[in-house]
Specification:
The protein has a single domain, classed as Spore Coat Polysaccharide Biosynthesis Protein SpsA, Chain A (Alpha-Beta Complex). About 20% of the residues lie in helices and about 25% in strands. The protein contains 5 helices and 14 strands. Strands 1, 2, 3, 4, 5, 6, 7, 8, 12, 13 and 14 form an 11-stranded mixed β-sheet that branches. A hairpin with a 2-residue loop joins strand 10 and strand 11. The chain starts with a strand and ends with a helix.
C-alpha cells in the first residue's frame, strides 16, 4: 500500500530539513504547497525534490490566519493531487515516531478502517516538556485523525483556518477508525524561534504585537497552562538535531 504525505508550508526553514528527512524515509509521495515563503523554504524543498518524489506547488495567500488565508482550499488541492492509497496530513513542524516504519505498512495493508488516529505530543517551551489538557483547554493530549484511505471522499470542510476533515456522509468521526500507538511529535513551540508571526491567537505566549520572545511564564486568564516532563524518546532525526 502506498502513502502520500501532504503539507502546506509558509516560512518553515527551521523545520523543513527535519520534516523532509523524516517523511521521505517512508512516504511514496510528498506533496507540498508553499504559501509564499520568503526564507529558505523553497530551496530546501527543491533540494529534496531532486532526490525524492517531492512535488512542490505554489499558492501565495498572504499572512497566515488572515482573511487572505484559505487553508481548506490548499489542503483539498493536495488531497486531489494525492496518488497514494493512503493520505497522511503531517505539518512541517511535526514528526512521526520512528515506530511508524515498522508498524504502519502492515496496518495499512490489513486494516478495514478508513481512518487512523494517532496520539499527539505537543512540546511546550523546549523539547523536554509536554503541554497537556486542562479544564477549558482540552486540545493538547488527544488522539487525532491524520491519515485516511484515498478515494473515499474524505476532504476538508470549507474553513479558512484550522479546517477539519469530513466524510462524504458527514463527520469524519463516524467513519470506521483504528487507533495506532505511534505518536506524532509537535515541535512548533520547542525548536527554532518557537513562535511565528500572527501566532498568538489564543494569548498563550503573551506576544500580541508579534515581536520579542515568547513569555513562558504568562498565566492565561481562562485556563491553566500545564506541562509535564517528556518521558519518551525523540525520533532519530530530532535526536541528531539536538546532539543526543
Amino acid at each position: 500500500m502506498s502513502l502520500t504525505v501532504i503539507t502546506p508550508v509558509l516560512n518553515e526553514e527551521t523545520f523543513l530539513p527535519l520534516y523532509l528527512e523524516s517523511v521521505t524515509s517512508y512516504a511514496d509521495e510528498v506533496i507540498i504547497v508553499d504559501g509564499g515563503s520568503t526564507d529558505n523554504s523553497i530551496s530546501i524543498i527543491e533540494s529534496y525534490a531532486a532526490r525524492f518524489n517531492v512535488r512542490l506547488f505554489r499558492n501565495k495567500q498572504g499572512t497566515a490566519y488572515s482573511d487572505e488565508w484559505n487553508e481548506s482550499e490548499v489542503r483539498n488541492f493536495m488531497v486531489d493531487e494525492a496518488q497514494g492509497d493512503w493520505i497522511a496530513n503531517i505539518d512541517a513542524d511535526e514528526i512521526f515516531d520512528d515506530a511508524w516504519k515498522t508498524i504502519m505498512p502492515h496496518r495499512m495493508a490489513s486494516t478495514k478502517a478508513d481512518v487512523f488516529l494517532f496520539p499527539i505530543i505537543n512540546f511546550w517551551k523546549d523539547p523536554w516538556n509536554v503541554r497537556v489538557n486542562t479544564a477549558n483547554d482540552e486540545r493538547w493530549s488527544n488522539d487525532i485523525v491524520r491519515m485516511w484511505r484515498n478515494g473515499k471522499g474524505i476532504r476538508y470542510r470549507d474553513q479558512k483556518h484550522h479546517c477539519t476533515l469530513r466524510g462524504q456522509a458527514g463527520d469524519v468521526w463516524t467513519l470506521p477508525a483504528e487507533k495506532v500507538d505511534v505518536p506524532i511529535y509537535h515541535y512548533h513551540y520547542a525548536l527554532g524561534k518557537r513562535f511565528k508571526f500572527n501566532d498568538n491567537r489564543r494569548g498563550d505566549v503573551n506576544l500580541y504585537n508579534n515581536t520579542g520572545d515568547p513569555d513562558w511564564t504568562y498565566r492565561h486568564e481562562e485556563y491553566q497552562i500545564r506541562t509535564v516532563p517528556f518521558a519518551g524518546r525523540h525520533p532519530q532525526v530530532i535526536s541528531s538535531y539536538l546532539g543526543l
